[in-house]
């Protein structure tokens, strides 16, 4: 199977995440997209993050009814912090024969060489890339050069996607201020947040 791996904090998951995942699934010919909420994201060390299980619950509510979407809690089972290279290795170990593709925005490509074991990341997964407005788009060849690997090591697919500019941090701020987030997050997620008062001041 061709599996899209969509990692992130998802605090909270929003409509932009879902549109990106669906466009990548469709245009890149993926059989499924697995949402992988980060358990202990190294780039957010010291920041306050909603509990892992609550972020997973919101994802489950958001993707309910989509036969090709699923939530994986694998990062909770791995030693922290949550490094993509280690997560991909464990996914391959548990799912031999699956072809993995990492879903990412073009804004992350220039940072990828700074990730933990970046060469191991591109060796284990193809990249399905969504352009971001105002960001210079790296090619697969440029990324390969930055990583010091042959061009064929980087499997690169560009996907056209509507630019839905929603930021989870802005949603958290809006919820804390009592503002509406209707249609920015799925209705079930909105109700979950309000019932549990997740982002109140």
How would you describe this structure to a colleague?
The structure is a single chain. The longest helix is centred in the N-terminal third of the chain and has 13 residues, at 15-27. This protein starts with a strand and ends in a 5-residue tail after the last helix. The protein has helices at 15-27, 52-63, 84-94, 118-124, 140-147, 168-176, 187-196, and strands at residues 2-8, 32-37, 69-71, 99-105, 126-130, 156-158. The chain is of the alpha/beta class and 201 residues long. It has seven helices and six strands, in the order βαβαβαβαβαβαα. The model has no long low-confidence stretch (mean pLDDT 94). α1 links the parallel β1 and β2. Strands 3-2-1-4-5-6 form a six-stranded parallel β-sheet, with helices on both faces. α2 packs antiparallel against α7 (187-196) and α3 (84-94) packs parallel to α4.
**Strands in their spatial order, largest beta sheet:** 3-2-1-4-5-6
Largest beta-sheet details: 6 strands, parallel
Shape: globular
Mean of pLDDT: 94
Distance between the ends: 44 Å
Sequence-ordered SSE layout with sheet pairings:
Elements: E1 2-8, H1 15-27, E2 32-37, H2 52-63, E3 69-71, H3 84-94, E4 99-105, H4 118-124, E5 126-130, H5 140-147, E6 156-158, H6 168-176, H7 187-196
Parallel strand pairs: 1-2, 1-4, 2-3, 4-5, 5-6
């Amino acid at each position: 199977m061709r599996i899209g791996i969509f990692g992130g904090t998802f605090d909270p998951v929003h409509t932009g995440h879902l549109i990106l995942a669906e466009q990548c699934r469709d245009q890149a010919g993926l059989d499924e997209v697995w949402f992988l909420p980060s358990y202990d994201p190294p780039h957010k060390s010291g920041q306050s993050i909603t509990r892992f299980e609550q972020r997973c619950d919101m994802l489950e509510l958001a993707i309910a009814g989509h036969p090709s979407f699923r939530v994986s809690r694998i990062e909770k089972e791995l030693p922290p912090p949550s490094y993509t290279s280690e997560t991909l290795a464990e996914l391959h170990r548990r799912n031999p024969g699956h072809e993995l593709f990492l879903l990412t925005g073009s804004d992350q490509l220039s940072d990828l060489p700074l990730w933990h074991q970046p060469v191991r990341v591109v060796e284990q997964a193809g990249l399905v890339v969504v352009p971001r407005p105002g960001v210079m788009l790296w090619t697969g060849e440029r990324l390969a050069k930055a990583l010091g690997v042959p061009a064929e090591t980087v499997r690169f697919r560009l996907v056209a996607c509507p630019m839905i500019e929603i930021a989870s941090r802005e949603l958290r701020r809006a919820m804390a201020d009592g503002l509406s987030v209707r249609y920015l997050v799925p209705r079930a997620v909105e109700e979950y947040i309000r019932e549990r008062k997740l982002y109140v001041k």
